[in-house]
Structures are given as C-alpha cells and as structure tokens.
Amino acid sequence: MHRIAAQVSVLLVATLVGVLGVGQLRSQTRPAEISSLPAQDLSALIETLTTRNRELRTGLADIREQLREYAVSGPQSQSALQVSREDLRRITAFGGTAAVNGQGIVMEVNGDLDAIALNDLVNELRNAGAEAIAVDQVRITAGSVAIQGPRSLEVDGVEVGRRFTLRAIGSPDGLLSAMQRPGGIISQLKLFVSATIQIQQVESVTLPATTLSLLPVVGKPIQ
C-alpha cells in the first residue's frame, strides 16, 4: 500500500513539473499574441498565472512532504510488523501450537502413578512458573488432563506407560526447588504411590508442539 501511494505521488510530481514546463513553452511560442493584449487583460493574465503558479508550488510541496512521510513510515511499519510477528511467534510457542526450546528440568518417572498423581505433578510445575510442559512427546496445553485409560494413563488420547519423562521449561532453580521442597508434591507422592522420580536441571530442552487443534468450539473472538 505504501509503495502504491509513493508511486502515485511521484506521478503527480511529474505531472506538475510537466504542467509548468508546458506553460513556459507555450508562453515562449506565443509572444506576439500576448504582446497584443491590452494592459487590463495582461494584468488579469499575470494575476491568474501568479495564482496558478502559487497553487502548483503549494501542491508540489505537499506531495514532497507526503513522499517524505512515506519514506519515514515505511521502516516504521516494517518495524511494527516485525514486532507483531515476534509476539505471534511467542504466543504460538508457549501456547502449545509450536515447538519451544529453553532451559528447565527433566523428570524421569518410573512407577505406578495414577491420573491424580500425574495431574498433581503437572499442576505443581505450572504453579512453579513452568512456561511449557511435556509428558514424553505430548505437549501439555491449557486443556490437557491425565486420565486412566483402559490399559494405562492417557494424556490427550496418548497412552503413558509406567516409565515416562516429564519435561518443563522455566527457571531451573525455581522449578527444582518447588518440586523438591519439604512437604511438596514429591514428598507427598512417596506416601501414596510406589514410584521413583529423578530430577535434573538442563540448559537446553526442546518440547514438541501439540498435535491437537486449540481452536475454541463455543467461544468466538471479538473484533
């Protein structure tokens, strides 16, 4: 749109310059006709030409100012577009619709956890500030919940075995402290389930995107 407007403005500038040039050419090729005009007509002609030239100069100045604004607003618009794209990239990444990478923790779980225990682990990570979570290759989203399936635990329709990996992106120190604090979730689980949970901090962990559609079924965006 900016490019089209700039091209139109350049065309208008060329047109104005052409009009001025044609006017000068005509005034040079008709000296006899002008010299034969009476003084009153000459005065009116001069006044008309003066007014017209003033209007042309004003119009030319306005178009040049528009061209300057287009030249300035072009990079600004590109910068705003880049910011919008970056915001969208972050939203999709941490909303679950795109893969994401960062530092965090990895939990190796082996044992007989039920659906309540797995949901408690995920919720504890969320409360500790985890920005993204995955159980094996299943990305946890706002609608994800562990349930007891016919043969094993399931998350978003994917079976989870007795041994699985729980990965979370966020502050490694904050996440680790929250999971291992005295009286915390791991300490509580040891009282009710037979499982081992090993946690390590990592500098880089990659979580996959969800395979589910996150489009709302009932809610509609407000324009």
Task: Spell out the blueprint of helices and strands.
Elements: H1 2-29, H2 31-35, H3 39-95, E1 100-111, H4 115-127, E2 132-135, E3 138-140, E4 146-148, E5 153-155, E6 158-160, E7 163-169, H5 172-180, H6 185-192, E8 195-207
Antiparallel strand pairs: 1-7, 1-8, 2-3, 2-7, 4-5, 5-6
Description:
- With 223 residues, the protein is α+β, with helices and mostly antiparallel strands.
- 54% of the residues lie in helices and 22% in strands.
- The chain contains 6 helices and 8 strands, in the order αααβαββββββααβ.
- A 5-stranded antiparallel beta sheet has the order 3-2-7-1-8. It has a 3-stranded antiparallel beta sheet with strand order 4-5-6.
- Helix 1 (2-29) runs antiparallel to helix 3 (39-95).
- The protein is rod-shaped and about 115 Å long.
- The protein starts with a helix and ends in a 16-residue tail after the last strand.
Helix count, DSSP H or I runs of 4 or more residues: 6
How far from one another are the termini? 23 Å
Question: Biggest β-sheet, characterized?
Answer: 5 strands, antiparallel
Overall 3D geometry?
rod-shaped
Global structural class: alpha+beta
Share in β-strands: 15-25%
Q: What series of H and E elements makes up the topology?
A: HHHEHEEEEEEHHE
Question: What's the number of extended β-strand segments?
Answer: 8
- Helix content bin: 40-55%
Low-confidence residue ranges:
1-32
Q: Average pLDDT, to the nearest integer?
A: 78
Rg over CA atoms, rounded to whole Å, is 36 Å
- Enumerate the strands of the largest sheet in spatial order, edge to edge or round the barrel: 3-2-7-1-8
